[in-house]
């Protein structure tokens, strides 16, 4: 398993599949940081030799600064582009391997599968992994910068280096504490996010049932419950993060303060030169970046660790059964034999117990029994979705466990009761088992299933696209398309699980007449839930409690089997008449067609446990199921502070329909918390700007003037600034995090309640996976914007104007030099924004298709496997995933050009500033 082999090592193995990207990303990062490590030495030469002793000229050293800026620009571009491409390549590989694993799962593993957990791993978890991989090259480069800077600092001044290193134990202790807390907290929050996806999947997938019974409010209440657990889990993570991240960022800043005090004292006494002191302070300032990156990586790393373990746990899942080694001979007799078969979905609760019967070649055997007798389970053992626990199932005299799954399932035509269809054309659904079938062959199969008539009446005939799960067709129409799908494969064995339950009596009669011709000479197993189906059978097997109670013709069983006679008269069993067959009498002015259609479909769903076919599961804590929840991890989760926070939002307003809705409406009611958050951000940014100003003041007014009192005063003020920034960051993380999660909770309710109000025509157009993308990927993107992007933008604006004001106060000429960089920056920003929006929209559209494909595959997994389309589906999914990857790579290219360009302008302006200063 992933945890046993080490998640980081496993992830590195995926990355090393792309050695070119790894080498270029890491190499450019290391080289870029090496260049940055040399820049303070150039600054030292300029201060000591150019400005101080005037023994060197300015031009070559200013030129060296510009060359260094150019090198850093090129290397940063390479690092960003190839690092981003590497992250997206690994994400693509993990996504496609997840798909491959899912399509290989047998029945027992499928019963453990939750669609919400799968989609959660394919969206949120993979996004976390991609974020970590993108940061790693920069992190490794920062580590090199740290080492080089440390060596140069030791060369410049041993005492000052010891001061800088004094903060290392504190950093190590904080990092260790954060690791033990953040990982379990993040794991729990990610599991709850997947539970939200599960609720959305269940409500959207069962939209007809929800609307038919008017249960929209009940579904919304389910989302409220899991949404509150997600809110509480994420708030706990935010509180923990607020303890560690500000501390990790404050400790090196405290080192800067100590350096100012000690270094200033040494410089005033003449123990170090002014240039050495400035260079040393520059190096120490450069170390703040790597340490802050460490703080980010620790947070993102713990989140990505939880995501990686969840993804790898799914990829590592192996089927409970192993494929056979023998091909089913083409001339093998089409016989079926159950030889003393025992089986249970739960080993302690057997469904079949010592079941034995035989179906002769060309014979049609109907299996009947009361609910829970095991008749539908019989149909699952034939194509070997499950293995028996005792005895054997034989086809053509061969134990199915010895046969390859491909040859076994190719011999079986399966028509499950739920008649699952894919969101494709009618033609593609009928030809699903034989994609190369001609139109004539497809039409012949449709005629045999009595489907040609209604198909021809559809808007585009056989090229009409049906909605997800065939939602645009009625229950009876779906059953006939599914029947045609099985007929087209010309199977030796036909397995029908009450395949005509949702059609009216006239259509059922026509299908039965057609089936008699199709079944002639073909071995057929009928799972019968209606008495009318028994007319097709040569013999009937009566099950009772998983055992064979009797076997014979209808006449024989009527004569000698009391159980059979009871089933025939029981309205809940064979004696029931579907409302779809006999409509209820109703007043002339009342249209009951919709109710009758729903009744017929609900009646059809009663015969086989839905979870066996559609992936639905009994309700359980989806946040803790299907995840790598080792006892140690669960113990760590239990040891965390309780997650008890509540959103405290106006839920009635959140679910109320709006004529128009945008960011302004979304943030309405959150004005005060947002203002407080932004005020804390302003304090954080202001103190961050004040610290270098105070250090510069200590140098100019204290060290340069040999005034020790000014050094102590600057150090005291700098200490106060660091402590104020520390406190502001704690409040900022908590306030922005809580406000952002409250907004997102309200947004989820808003989107979900709107989904409940939409008509069926919307669900006919939109796939569940696309809807879930809006509730997962898009909401997560908004979360990042509210909790990180908005803060970063505000900090950038405050910092920009703060620097502008400071420059104007210090030196108008220097300020004009900096202002000269604004026109190219504005032009670059304009073109970057326009191109990046297009790239993002394309990527968003493509990832919606990827998620829709994955969700539909999970929902229709039994059909995919029954008709042997695992490989074809894998190729299609890989193509869609690759299309999404290419769109994201293009966006990454734009980012890789724009942001290093902004950094280059900043470095060029700094070089010009130094040149102007020397000119004076």
Structural class by helix and strand composition: alpha/beta
DSSP strand tally: 10
- What is the CA-based Rg, rounded? 34 Å
- Uncertain regions spanning at least 5 consecutive residues: 577-622, 913-920
Number of helices: 33
Helix % is 55-70%
Note the main sheet: 6 strands, mixed
Question: Terminal Cα separation, in Å?
Answer: 66 Å
What is the averaged pLDDT score? 77
Arrangement of strands in the largest sheet: 6-7-8-3-9-10
Q: What is the overall shape?
A: elongated
Beta-strand content estimate:
5-15%
Q: Helix and strand layout, with pairings?
A:
Layout: H1 2-5, H2 7-15, H3 19-52, H4 58-104, H5 107-111, H6 115-156, H7 158-165, H8 168-205, H9 207-212, H10 216-268, H11 274-315, E1 336-343, E2 352-359, E3 364-369, H12 375-381, E4 390-395, E5 398-399, H13 405-410, E6 412-415, H14 426-430, H15 439-448, H16 452-456, H17 475-488, E7 493-497, H18 505-519, E8 523-527, E9 539-544, E10 547-552, H19 554-560, H20 562-569, H21 593-605, H22 611-614, H23 631-639, H24 651-655, H25 663-667, H26 671-703, H27 708-757, H28 760-765, H29 768-810, H30 812-819, H31 822-859, H32 861-866, H33 870-919
Parallel strand pairs: 3-8, 3-9, 6-7, 7-8
Antiparallel strand pairs: 1-2, 1-4, 4-5, 9-10
Helix pairs in contact: 3-4, 3-6, 3-11, 4-6, 4-11, 4-33, 6-7, 6-8, 6-11, 6-29, 6-31, 7-10, 8-10, 8-11, 8-23, 8-29, 10-11, 10-26, 10-27, 15-17, 26-27, 26-29, 27-29, 29-30, 29-31, 30-33, 31-33
